[in-house]
Here is the input.
Amino acid sequence: MTPGRSFENAILAGPLVLFLLAILGFPTVLSLVYGFSETSFQTLTTPQFSGLRNFRDVTADPTFWQAAWFSLRFGAITAILQCGLGLALAVYLAPLTQRHGWTVAILIIPMIVAPAMMGLMYRLVLHEFAGPVPHYLYSWLGWSPSFLGPANVFKTVIVAETLQWTPFAFLLFLTAYQSIPQDLREAAAVDGTRPWRLFWKIELPLMMPTVFVALFIRFIDGFRVFDNIYTLVGAGPGGSTTSMSIYIYETFLRRGEIGKAIAAAILLFITAFVILSVAQRLLWGRSA
Amino acid sequence: MKPRMTLRWIVFAIAAFVMNFPVLATLITAFKPPGEVSRNPSLWIEAPTLENFATVLTVSDRLNVYHYLWNSTVAALIGALLPMIVAFPLAWAMVRRGVGRGMLFPLVVNLRALPLIIFAIPLYMMYSAAGLLDTKVGLGLILAVVNLPLALLLLVNAVADIPAEIEEAAHMDGARLPRLLIKVVLPLCRPALITTFVFGFITAWNEFLFGLMLTTRDAVPMTVGASFFFATSGGGVQWGTAAAVMVVAALSPLVLGLVMYRRITGSMVAGAVKG
Amino acid sequence: MAQLRIENLSKRFGNQAVTRDVSLDVEDGAFCVFVGPSGCGKSTLLRLIAGLETADSGRIFVDGRDVTDAPAYDRDLAMVFQSYALYPHMTVRDNIAFALRTAKRPEPEVAAKVAEAARILQLEPYLERKPAQLSGGQRQRVAIGRAIVKAPKLFLFDEPLSNLDAELRVHMRVEIARLHKDLGATIVYVTHDQVEAMTLATKIVVLRDGMIEQVGSPLQLYDDPDNLFVAGFIGSPKMNFLTAYRRGEQLVIPECGGQEISCPELRSTIAEGAEVTVGLRPQFLGRQGGQSLELMIEIVEHFGSDSLVHARSAGAARLLTALVENGRELVSGQRLEARFKTEDLLFFDQAGQRIR
Here is the structure.
């Protein structure tokens, strides 16, 4: 490589690299410093090194484990529900959406609305006095469940998240479904294959890579959920809807325990990184 | 074929209704006069009115919706444009010269999967020291980071789609790198750039967590501003007004998204499958 | 226009040597065609001249100037790509003008040159269109227009006719030949089609495996090939090859059932009993000549004016082709006495080299 080239490459890559270093690189260094120190908002500039104390505090905190468990369950359940529903909708509605493209637009509206707004909208919709859902449930079925009460709140947030993000899975699967070459279907038809068998034996196997990708992405997004749960119920009754992100937020801003919050964040980062690497190896290792 | 299509239409209608229910209900509530809301929670509006919107759209000391909208717009513009500017040259270098393909590319693309809250805290402290706390620019910068992975991915794909021969022809025509990039590569990436912008703008506008953490008064974006209406400060939530605020808040991305939905659906899929 | 000189040019991609020590001289105003089978390195050689690839060793001189280390945009050459590589987002006018504007020529000069190129290539009605709105032939003319407007030292063509249908190909071949004559340009042209090579070239370079097999005018290569490869590559239909050995003044041909032909011109360099490869073009095998072979006709292909007869000696393996004028009465299964003149025979040794 000629020296002119290296210089050019540096100029081309420079802006992005510098930008990342400034906005993320520096905070990462800060994280490491504060994660291993004792700090408070008053003593921001004078952290005192405290070794692994913060990490011990975090791992000893039952709320932390409750939040971790919540995020895991939440991520897994919502991922499976969204992908299942999304797959079913995509495959079943494919002939319809192909001919009437606008139907896709309507179905993806939930994705375009900010998750935080969606959370607030669910708060309205489920409100005992102002919300239509309790109203109709009571007048038609005589039910009046407490949606945000401790017994039901988990299911409620799961439903809210699922309904907002199923369109994403729907879109992914629709695209994958439509990209299956039509002559494969035609050949199968000539061979006498009926629709269900066609789906099960031919279309679904071809869509499997997308299924895994979708599950993975939705799990990650569910794991690190913040916006819609926070605006809907906050930390939840008894902290029961505290996700990992909410836990970190509360520890930092509400309780001012800086070091502990950062330690939790670092642990979260390591977990996410490990999951990511494992998943990448599984998903792409063979093809790479 | 007919009866099967009808069944599909029914399923579509149910799915569309159920998934969009909160949006519908909010929209309906926004048109109910304040007195009616708690009395009549059904989907039927007894006395439709624009009163709530009027309240929202008039400036008061409790609420200045234009302030929030303006903050969101500026921050989202920065958050959508900055990644494009910064990723474009690198995308070209990655595709044509393999720069950073081994490490930088996976690093940036995997950012998408990391819970960004882990950067939020140190960022807070860094901003507070740098005087970027509660500024539109500060918010815009982190929004740019959020959009960076998809921007890089889409632009790399766009550059890869340009046949190398066209760039060779430009070489033969005497074009050096700046002219090549600006006059030939950039125009050919236009669709991808538009997609990146639209998707980035919507994502940036919808951001909540960073808005919550990094702003207090001057740079509060619309998403956070809307949530102030749900703080039950004295007397419970004014649902009519709150609903109207949410409609206003959701409007920009919704309009942009519906107009451009073909583009963003493509970008969402690309971001997902390749990432 | 200018002359081109290549000295000992070599290039490898990874472990693969694609160009091996190639040296060549192309005179001012020549139409030089690089021809050869896929993978012979002809495109690589062209790209090395263009500056789109860098040679590992050797030198390239354009008009006496050493351009080996110069980047593509400094060599003052023009290239027409196989896919035309037109800028899809620009009009025909802007496509043609691009290079001139890059060189910051004054706008009136640019306009005049573009108009002139458009006139020569009959592109005037299409100047405001975008490439997507043009047909294949029109796009190719735009690609050529982009090249001539630069008044380069050399024109480089990389398989420009491959993407056209058969009829258009013949038409464009004539156009390119005419362009060469009108502009007096020095052209280096790459193709895998030896018909294009034969009809367009003043000089043909036959390449195989990165090396030059022979350089010469089309007729030189046709009449006087240096080796087996060139003899078989140039000329359509392909030359017949037979293995034979010498017995005194005769050639014994085992592949034709041991038939013998009397051949007084046999060189003294061919030893008694030595095996040689004999080449005979189908055009020279048919109804005329002093020698003949007894063959059984398998298939006849009638072209209207001529017929291509595929025949073999009874029970033998080798299938021969004969191009016969007015062969309408010939049918499969018939016996054919295929005549030829011994002067038309070409002899090649065991290494494939021509024995003159």
User: Anything to note?
Assistant: The domain at 65-274 of chain B is CATH 1.10.3720.10 (MetI-like fold). The longest helix of chain B spans residues 65-97. Chain B touches chain A through 91 residues (CB under 8 Å).
